[in-house]
Design goal:
- By secondary structure, the protein is α+β, with helices and mostly antiparallel strands.
- Helices cover 31% and strands 28% of the residues.
- It has a 7-stranded mixed beta sheet with strand order 3-10-11-17-14-13-12, sandwiched between helices.
- A hairpin with a 7-residue loop joins strand 18 (311-312) and strand 19 (320-321).
- Helix 2 (36-55) crosses helix 9 (299-310).
- It is globular.
- It starts with a helix and ends in a 5-residue tail after the last helix.
- The structure holds glycyl-adenosine-5'-phosphate.
- Glycyl-adenosine-5'-phosphate is lined by residues 141, 143, 173, 175, 184-185, 188, 190, 192, 257, 259-260, 294, 296-298, 300-301.
């Protein structure tokens, strides 16, 4: 586990996981771009989530809605009125902070203006004129489309309670104090499920989702001893929530929120369908408002927690990113022992292509620079779990060495068995 966020920021920049956004123009406060390795890691997390919660279950369907919605959505959801923070301005240097700040983080000043309510939704205009009739908002959570589309989903899938709608996508918040790398940004991604239930079942399903979320955190390689559940007190809960648990993680900058689980009751459906309960019980014919349990997960915070927990510099000779193989950008690296022997290089390219064109997404990388030791070092740093070397023996008996990132142990494997061998290692990783 990493002991400082600077180490993560530096590895991410150096190896192409995450770069500062708009860097050539001096950056843009707290915006970050996912590079070639970062986008693979992030996609692997999103795909794993989709597989676990949508494909592997019968009771959840997906949605990918527009991220700018009719502003009436935000009126009904309460966001126009309630999605606000209190802002103060330092009297000395005019920097802005959330009202709970003790001393100015810029100049140390202790005098602030009176707290002013500040809506955190990001506003823009649709169409050629910037008058208020054209004002719209970037969604501050993916959730609302799953309520607004509730009837459409119901009509087209014929789902019955309990069932859920899942969505992955961007959300935007005009955060007053973004920071800590990708922990708090103004543009981020969420993976959310709105799970619709009967009111009488809410405690049962709240507990179900609490356990599912913990299992998910283990699936992505987080150690549960660094996860802490916080029962959010009534006063601090979002305006729609009757119960919230925050799952906090021990980031190097302190214990802070990773995910949230909320019981939204019937708040949202009642506001969006005020005169028309949208669910009809098939047996009784009675129409009513389903209640909602909402597991809400930040994609970027998942990436950050995964990187922090995988980072291992305890061995003085190498830095290892101990990512779960399923999450690693490359599952395998392929090396010819030396780069100046054409027979070795062409055999290595053959093996590489065999892995690359295999439908099981191994996404291999080819590397013939420097010596094998340096290549291992380079792959360990980015979490590649298996390194395959083509050597002189390969030319004689069609075997290669497979070196395991975590144990550094090497095995000789027949090329004809290589794909299955790697696949089995990935699938059985937990039992290593
Ligand atoms: N629909 C419920 C909802 O949006 P939230 O607690 O405001 O609840 C859910 O956000 C999750 O989204 C958080 O637990 C966090 O993982 C992520 N998140 C929220 N604001 C964020 C930000 N400014 N930057 C990065 N991630 C954020």
């Amino acid at each position: 586990m990493v002991d400082s966020i600077e180490k993560i920021v530096s590895l991410c920049k150096r190896r192409g996981f995450i770069y500062p956004g708009s860097e050539i123009y001096g950056g843009l406060a707290n915006s970050w771009d996912y590079g070639p390795l970062g986008v693979e890691l992030k996609n692997n997390i999103k795909n794993l989530w989709w597989r676990k919660f949508v494909h592997n279950r019968d009771d959840i369907v997906g949605l990918d809605a527009a991220l700018i919605m009719n502003p009436k959505v935000w009126e009904a959801s309460g966001h126009l009125k309630e999605f606000a923070d209190y802002l103060v301005e330092c009297q000395k240097c005019h920097a802005h902070f959330k009202s709970e700040v003790g001393a100015c983080e810029e100049c140390g000043g202790k005098e602030f203006t009176a707290p002013k309510k500040f809506n955190m939704m990001l506003k823009t205009f649709l169409g050629p004129s910037e008058d208020s009739a054209n004002a719209v908002y970037f969604r501050p959570e993916t959730a609302q489309a799953m309520f607004a589309d509730f009837k459409n989903v119901l009509d087209t899938t014929r789902k019955t309670l309990p069932f859920g709608i899942a969505q992955i996508g961007k959300a935007f918040r005009n955060e007053i104090t973004p920071g800590n790398f990708i922990f708090r940004t103004r543009e981020f991604e969420q993976m959310e499920i709105e799970y619709f239930i009967r009111e009488s079942d809410w405690e049962k399903y709240f507990e179900h989702w609490r356990k599912e979320m913990l299992e998910w955190m283990e699936n992505i390689g987080l150690d549960l001893k660094h996860i802490h559940e916080l029962e959010v007190p009534t006063k601090e809960r979002a305006h729609y929530s009757k119960r919230t648990i925050d799952f906090e993680y021990d980031y190097p900058f302190g214990r802070k929120e990773l995910y949230g689980l909320a019981y939204r009751a019937d708040f949202d459906l009642k506001n969006h369908f005020p005169n028309d309960p949208p669910y009809r019980d098939a047996e009784s014919g009675e129409s009513f408002y389903p209640h909602i349990i909402e597991p809400s997960l930040g994609v970027d915070r998942s990436v950050l927690a995964v990187l922090c927990s995988a980072y291992d510099d305890s061995d003085k000779d190498r830095l290892v990113l101990r990512l779960k193989p399923q999450l690693a950008p490359y599952k395998a690296a392929v090396f010819p022992l030396v780069a100046n022997k054409p027979e070795l290089v062409s055999k290595a390219r053959e093996v590489y292509l065999q892995l690359k064109t295999n439908p099981y997404a191994l996404n291999p990388v080819f590397d013939d620079r420097g010596n094998v030791g340096k290549r291992y070092y380079s792959q360990d740093e980015i979490g590649t779990p298996y390194c395959i070397t083509i050597d002189y023996q390969t030319l004689e008996d069609d075997t290669v060495t497979v070196r395991d990132r975590d144990t550094t142990k090497q095995d000789r494997i027949k090329i004809s068995e290589l794909v299955n061998n790697i696949k089995n290692r990935i699938e059985n990783y937990n039992h290593d």
